[in-house]
Amino acid sequence: MMGERPVRQEVPFYGFSLEEHVPADHLLRSIDRFVELSGIRQHLEPFYSVIGRPSIDPELTIRMLLVGYCCGIRCERRLCEEVHLNLAYRWFCRLGLDGAVPDHSTFSKNRHGRFRDSDLLRQLFEATVQRCMAEGIVGGEGFAVDASLIRADAHRQKGVASREELDPANASRAVTEYLAVLDDAAFGAATEVEPKFISPTDPAARWTAAAGGPACYAYCDNLLIDVEHAVIVDVEATTAVRQAEVGAAQTMLTRTRETFGLWPERLIADTGYGSAAMLGWLVHGQAIEPHIPVFDKSTRKDGTFSREEFRYDREGDVYFCPAGKMLSTRGRLSSDEQLLHWSSTYDCAACPLKQNCCPKDPHRRVSRSIHEGARDLARDIAKTEAYATSRRQRKKVEMLFAHLKRILRLDRLRLRGPCGARDEFHLAAAAQNLRKLAKLIPTGAPSALPS
Whole-angstrom Cα distance, residue 132 to residue 153? Predict the structure, then answer.
């Protein structure tokens, strides 16, 4: 029997509570316990005028941005629509049922103005790290570092050959920021190699095909994580070249020690961070064990003896060839900080192994990095069981990048310029840390700090 919709008399007054409507296990309810924005107004006070019309509450703007990055809503216009319609979003943003949602243009005004000038988003990310430390989920013993390419908001088929073709007179914000970071080690000064193309809309983005697909303009998102619970302890935006990634690792380690007092015993990374200079900086400058594969190109492919077939005597600082002859150094350094060891022409001329050693030269030379001691330490560490454990733990940072791109949908930037990349990376890292706190500390569990 087909039923009919009963006609109901509308109740003139009724009670409705957002607090009761949001489920106890909702993601935003779990995250809300760890969001502390009480000092935001004082931090931003110097960047607001004392006269004029009152602005949108900055805490509301930050809470809406956190909703967007935690829930994978990248479009600001859509974010405003979702906050207007979704009751859980309204509860998290403290809007109630009838609170007005700000226009999407408010985000652009604050991001490119007050928030960026005050470095607020960096402060927001560091607050999540401090909360993770207070909750006891940051061990501080082992760190892992890695970088991932994030495509820029720039058309891959539009570009100019050099920066001289950019028009500074009619430059956009992204072009102005690019010209301001030409001497920055993370961007313009990271490498002397000129890119094949430069985007006229976002010139700081690097033309690269390192991702394995078609070449595109991209930035690098560099993460430094604590391997105990995969908490992000620092984040840095750089241009998409390996030299900038290595420099970013050094910057993040130094800044983490100065900001949070964290000094790891070991650093886990891939071979790209295993250069002699980086290993020397870790071992001799920071007293950090490098759980990193050594980047080594000393193996010869022409059939002659490679460097590992020469025995090194540490006390005398000399090498001995397979025939037992000595190679000594004259203290000369090459351009890449290599110390050259030379054999005697007299010894090589009468050597029966000359054709297998230096068939085209009168004597044999062997180069040794001034950081070879740190490289040897890294090789010794690679033979231990702790190193095997570190290689498994390194996957945690790769999983964070997968989560960033697939769940938070940050596979392409929406903001342009170096500052835009920093803002997006800081917000995404803060969102990932908040989600980590919500996962590891269930609702109702005792917290280290009052919510």
Answer: 32
